[in-house]
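Checklist before submission:
- one chain only
- standard amino acids only
- sequence pasted in full

Submission:
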Amino acid sequence: MNSETVSETLRISCKYNYESQVISLLQAMHSEIISLKTGQDTIKLELNSTREELNSKIDYLQSQLDNRGFSEQETVPSATDIPCNSLIRAPIPNIWDITLKHVFKMMSEDLGIEVNNKEKATLRVCTKIICDELAVHPLVKDLGS
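Returned file contents:
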């Protein structure tokens, strides 16, 4: 074998090794993408299930409010009732520090909705129920860690 043949053989061998490594890498990437897609589909199903649970709980709470004399008109304002001529400013820079006091202030100052003590109590109860439910949800727990 002459040096030219050896050189050509090495070049072909290196090219083959390189191509097989690229193919192997692409196959690994494909497997990961399939795995991510499966995980994404699972999360979408969990999210839809959670959304349905929340909707049924909202319906239940609404029926409880209706039974206590609150009508849907009193508890759910129409979108046309909310003024849209100005932006709602953020009351504080970090969303984790927002309290119900900030929410009440935004509702009265930015949206023009006066919140009385009875409505504040209802909002506190609803917020507590929603926060308690969300706190035990696996996706929310993952966000906190």
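Reviewer check: Residues 3-67 form the longest helix (65 residues).
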